[in-house]
Amino acid sequence: xxxxxxxxxxxxxxxxxxxxxxxxxxxxxxxxxxxxxxxxxxxxxxxxxxxxxxxxxxxxxxxxxxxxxxxxxxxxxxxxxxxxxxxxxxxxxx
Length: 94
Hints:
By secondary structure, this protein is an alpha+beta fold. The chain contains 2 helices and 5 strands, in the order E-E-E-E-E-H-H.
């Protein structure tokens, strides 16, 4: 089984598939959809899992966009180098 990853800089492209359904794609790949049930907008991701319900279509669009944001991983390296590594290399004298 393979998974598709999306670069964070590619925006979602939205198309209205029916009067109450909007479908999102990213780089030609299915990314999810929003369905209006008469009172709220239900958001589903690229695997069909429900993300949530939102009062406006714009809120639903933003919610699906946020599900594709890559998670930031904590850095394995400290922010500052140890003093020994910060020194400039010295030139050899001739």
